[in-house]
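Record type: ASSEMBLY
Status: queued
Input:
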Amino acid sequence: MATTANQVVVGRAVTKRYKDLVAVDHIDFEVRQGECFGILGPNGAGKTTTIRMITCVSPLTEGELHVVGLDVNKCQREIKSRIGVVPQDDNLDPDLTVLENLLVYARYFDIPPEIAEERAWDGLRLFHLEEKVKETINHLSGGLKRRLTIVRALINDPELLVLDEPTTGLDPQARHLVWQKLRQLKQRGITMLLTTHYMEEAARLCDRLLIIDQAKIIAEGRPSDLIEQHAGHEVVEIRTDNADPEEVKKRLRGRTNGYELEQHEDTIYLFGVDGSVSETDYEDLSELGSEVLLRRASLEDVFLRLTGRGLTE
Amino acid sequence: MIATDVSHRSFHVWQRNRDVFLHLWKAELSWPIVEPVLIMIGLGLGLGTFVELDGEQDYLQFITPGLLAVFPMFAAVSECGWGSYSRMEMQHTFDAIVATPVSVDDIITGEIIWAASRAMLNTFYILLVALVLTPFYDLVESPLFWACLPFAFVHGFMFGSMSLGYTANVRAMSQLMYFFSLIVMPMFYLGGVFFPLDDLSEGFQIAAWFLPITHVVNINRALVSGGLDWAHIIDLAWILVVGAVLFRFALWSMRRRLIN
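Status: finished
Output:
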């Protein structure tokens, strides 16, 4: 498989099978130079498995996968030396200090100590960790640990930064700070690949994304295009509470031309895929439920419509 | 046999373990010194008064080379047992390392050479105690005693491999205890450390011959008390053969566990 200089990751029919489970089923994708590419999906969809294959930790069962122009089946060491990985679970060395964590990690890449120290300090400054250099990891909060893990992933000056659910488990402040820093990295031209199940994160950070569910790709494109295509501009949410949803749906009949209607539990959603909800329409609808909300469609709507609202776990 | 993917980077794994050890060494200093000293006093001097050996040898003199085998064995086994298990499953250190150009084989090799180094360090502690006591009890009689240190690296490598091969197949930390009670403790008690094997039945002697520790004790005895001869090449060869096989087994088991 030939790859061009613009393609940082190219996967064709990438498949991973375990004994009695297909974790990733013939997915095709590519990540281009300088972009932030997102892989979205519910828990268990195959996101982390895909990441593990891209980062050369888990071998492919079938298909082809090239990262930074190299075949993952043949050039693991070289690929790993040119990418940075932020894993989902914290795996910093708890007994070492912040700075030692970075220097020890740099050694795995054969980075000379002077350069390692320079890069460590650059990263620590960028992520506002310079005052914590002497702290041991056990004394850091979840947000600080995650920031340090990102700094650690940058120690080899990677061509591609792979982040597996970078903000899972963080409080809102910490999450926003991480987003801001990732945007800064993107401005510096670092290609990023991230998985997430936070739609807001995907919408804020990703130029392009794919949604996978049950090991298969179910949609891909720019976030704005995906929203337009699958959820329209606006969504009306009608919470029926004590009213019978079927009754409400009956009354809606004939009044929802151009909208797609979906009901989940006690809420009815109208997606204005072929047009938008006008003020008058909205007024008409407002007496139907205990709470009627007109809002802009979001990636969350796309995600929930495509993957279904049922819990997969 | 499978090809190995071991590179100089295994040394970086060793360096990582050393760096952590240097943070914690004070906490880990007591048992490698205190336990051997307790055995020297309790068994060597205490029980020793009831023991009569061939020739002029004191019981303390008899057990010291054995202690130079078993305590380093404990160190190597614990390092690749509880140590490796917690790095693998609790601290996820291995997961962090495999994301770098360090291969799984490098990690395993680094862990084992670290265990071998711990065996060497424990040997050093016990040799120090033995040297301090030598003016009173003639514990070290041959200038070759210092060779126990590089030799500890060799048998530490074997015991580390043995332990890591088992750890790779364990699903819970509590299972590590089985290895200790069923493999390590029998070697401790039955490997010729506390009594001469020559006096035992032939069947027992043959069984003891297959225990790697028996050969470690033989060589240490020759290095500390004198009497090294060509026959010890067989002891060393057995240790090397067992070490090579167990190292391969550790690689195979750990790959099976970590690469999926």
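Annotation: Chain B touches chain A through 23 residues (CB under 8 Å).
Annotation: The radius of gyration of chain B is 19 Å.
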